[in-house]
Amino acid sequence: MDTTNLIVFIVLALIATIIAVFLKESRMKTASLLVMIAAGCLIFLRLLPSLSLLFDSFSTLSERAGVSSDYLSLLLKIIGLAYLAEFGAQLCRDAGEGAAALKIEFAAKITILLLALPLIASVIQAVLRLLD
Q1: Are 36 and 94 in contact (CB under 8 A)?
Q2: Which domain does 44 fall in, by range?
């Protein structure tokens, strides 16, 4: 991804925000929210090729470093989950539902901890082996 793509994303988000504000002032809150969701989804879809390149780069780096592909897969799942939770929480906040956003974030934190348990256990076992 280059700076031109970033500028396109910023312009798209600003245009969507202006339209959403206009719709809110016209008492069309549902349409305003739909505009913001559509803009977010469009940006996400345009980022997919960059995400694929990023995953390939992580894979290459983990192979060079001799890191297990299981750990890389786990790390990518956790990062993906964190970003999805943040996206969902922001959508809730945009809709004026801050309490729902907090619940999404809490659920994501618990899920991330559960996903990370095998990695945490491996680190603890390695430390215990070093202490013996």
Answers
A1: yes
A2: 1-65
